[in-house]
Design brief:
Blueprint lengths: L3 E5 L7 H14 L4 E5 L11 H17 L8 E4 L5 H10 L4 H5 L2 H9 L5 H15 L5 E3 L5 H18 L7 E3 L33 H9 L16 H14 L3 H7 L5 H28 L1 H30 L7
Parallel strand pairs: 1-2, 2-3, 4-5
Helix pairs in contact: 2-11, 3-6, 3-12, 6-7, 8-11, 9-11
Bound molecules: tryptophan.
Tryptophan binds next to strand 1 and helix 6.
Length: 327
C-alpha cells in the first residue's frame, strides 16, 4: 500500500477530463494512506482575485467529494489550512538551486505568458515539494506536465537527505496511461482546459442540454465510420470518452456502431456522459447548499493532515539546526 498525495489547483472550471482522467480513479482507488490537497497557495502565484479564490477553493473541494473522495477513507484538505506547508517550503527553498528552478518549463511558460511574474511563481515547485515530502508520499498521481516538478522534488529530497541525514521518502510521479486523456471536442490537439472557455470543453457544472449540444457539435472526421484511427482524431477522442464513462472497450463500441453513422453514436454518447455525471452533479449541488458541512469536512481533513505534517516539520527543524522555541 503506497502513500499517495496529489494536489488540485482551485483555478478555472473543472471539466469531464479532470473527472475521467484523474478524480474518478482517485475515488475508486482511495485508501487511508492517500491524501488530496486543494492547493490554494499555488493558485496565488499568478494574478488572482481574493473572493474568487475563496469561492473556488470551496468549490474544488466540493467537486472532489462529489466525484467520490470519501473523507472517512482518505484525507482531503486545503493546503493553506496546514501551515507547515509554507514553513517546509522555506527550508526546501534553501536547498533547491536557482538553476534547477529556472529550468522548469511551467515557470518559463507562465512567466512568458503574463505581464507580471511573481517571485512565488519561481518558487512554486518548492512549495509543491513541501506538499509531497511532508507526508512521505511515495506516489504522486499527476498529469504529464507535472512530471518535471516531481523530479525536482526527488532531487531536492535527495540533496536534503544527503546533507542533513535521511529524512524524506523519494517520491515518483504516476502518470495515467493514455486513454483517459480526453481532448477538446473542437480541437483534438489540445487537452480540455480549465481556464479556456471553449465549446469543446464539457464542464462538470453545466446543464445536461449544454453537454449534449457540445457533443452533437463536436468535430468529427471525414467519412462516416465510427472507428478509432490515427487519421480520425475527432472520432477517436469521442470513442475514448465513451469508453471512459461506460467502462466499455473501444473495440466493442466500434462494433456496436458499425454502419450507423455519427449521429446515433453522438446521441448515445451524450446520454452516457450525462448519465455518468448526473450523480456527481447532484452531489456537488447538495454540498454547495450546505457550506457549514463542507467546511466541517475540510476542518477534519486538515486535522488529519496536520498530525502528519507537524511531526515531519519537527524533524526537519531539528535536522537543519533551528532552535526549539522552548515554550
Ligand atoms: N502543480 C500541480 C498542478 O498544477 C498542483 C500541485 C500542487 C500538486 N502541489 C502538488 C500536484 C503536489 C501533486 C502533488 O497540477
Amino acid at each position: 500500500m503506497a502513500r499517495v498525495l496529489s494536489g488540485v489547483q482551485p483555478s478555472g472550471d473543472p471539466h469531464v477530463g479532470n473527472y475521467l482522467g484523474a478524480w474518478m480513479r482517485w475515488a475508486r482507488e482511495q485508501e487511508a494512506e492517500h491524501l488530496y490537497c486543494v492547493v490554494d497557495l499555488h493558485a496565488m502565484t499568478v494574478r488572482f482575485d481574493p473572493a474568487l479564490l475563496r469561492e473556488r477553493t470551496l468549490d474544488t473541494a466540493a467537486w472532489l467529494l462529489a466525484c467520490g473522495l470519501d473523507p472517512d477513507v482518505c484525507t482531503l484538505f486545503v493546503q493553506s489550512h496546514v501551515r507547515e506547508h509554507t514553513e517546509a517550503a522555506w527550508v526546501l527553498a534553501c536547498v533547491a538551486s536557482m538553476g534547477e528552478l529556472g529550468r522548469m518549463t511551467h515557470f518559463k511558460e507562465k512567466s512568458q505568458a503574463n505581464d507580471f511574474t511573481s517571485a512565488a511563481l519561481f518558487t512554486y515547485p518548492v512549495l509543491q515539494a513541501a506538499d509531497i515530502l511532508l507526508y512521505h508520499a511515495e506516489e504522486v498521481p499527476v498529469g504529464d506536465d507535472q512530471r518535471q516538478h516531481v523530479e525536482l522534488t526527488r532531487d531536492v529530497a535527495q540533496r536534503f537527505n544527503h546533507r542533513f541525514g535521511d529524512t524524506f521518502t523519494l517520491p515518483r510521479a504516476t502518470v495515467p496511461k493514455v486513454g483517459a486523456r480526453i481532448m477538446d471536442l473542437q480541437n483534438t490537439d489540445a487537452k480540455m482546459s480549465k481556464s479556456l472557455e471553449s465549446a469543446g470543453t464539457i464542464r462538470l457544472e453545466e446543464e445536461e442540454s449544454a453537454t449534449r449540444r457540445k457533443i452533437m457539435r463536436s468535430i468529427t472526421d471525414s467519412g462516416s465510420e465510427v472507428r478509432a484511427a490515427a487519421d480520425k482524431p475527432g472520432v477517436t477522442n469521442l470513442l475514448e470518452l465513451f469508453a471512459a464513462v461506460t467502462g466499455a472497450e473501444v473495440a466493442d463500441l466500434e462494433a456496436r456502431y458499425a454502419g450507423t453513422g455519427y449521429g446515433d453514436f453522438k446521441r448515445d454518447l451524450a446520454e452516457a456522459v450525462n448519465g455518468a455525471l448526473r450523480p456527481v452533479r447532484e452531489r456537488h449541488a447538495e454540498l454547495r447548499r450546505d457550506p457549514a458541512e463542507l467546511e466541517a469536512i475540510l476542518a477534519k481533513g486538515a486535522d488529519k493532515a496536520r498530525a502528519v505534517a507537524t511531526s515531519t516539520m519537527a524533524t526537519i527543524r531539528e535536522r537543519v539546526g533551528l532552535l526549539p522555541s522552548g515554550a
